[in-house]
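Narrative of activities, Objective 1.

The group set out to show that a structural description can be obtained from nothing but a protein's sequence at a throughput compatible with the screening campaign. Below is one input-output pair from the validation batch, recorded exactly as produced.
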Amino acid sequence: MWRILVVDDEENILSAIRRGLKQSGRDESLPPLQVEAFTSPQAALARSREGVAYDLVLSDYRMPEMSGIEFLRSFRELQPDAVRIILSGYADLDAVIHAINEVEIYRFLSKPWNDHELQQTIRQAIEHRNLLLENRRLADLVRVQQGKLTRQQLELRRLEEETPGITRVRWGPDGEVLLEEF
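Output recorded for this entry:
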């Protein structure tokens, strides 16, 4: 199952994206998609802090609470392995270049979009992500064999990939472990 996070301040855009992605669910060559959509980037960040691992995040470029770049920068800190895509009605070349350089987006899609193009972009992006993760896993196995990485470090990486944030510990000034309130 592929988990996708969509953030746009316009509910009708979220509905259209959900509808377009639902159509791709009929393609039996694709795994099922689980799409979570938010009109608030802050709410989306809060959800991503809960340890839910997303394969891909699709964000609007211009939102009132924070820009898509600000959102994706914060999201990348929480889940660096998720593929990032920006959707925008503004085709500002400087903005595209900034997004690519700042938050390492995979693709910039323009509004209005073509559902087939959106589906293909998501498919290619997640397949690209999966190849990168597999390459990292294989490289890590070689590092373990060469003694450059311990099995414990390898397991910590696997756990972090599976449940983002699980290996991060916040320490207090006296050495105590700080727990976040829910």
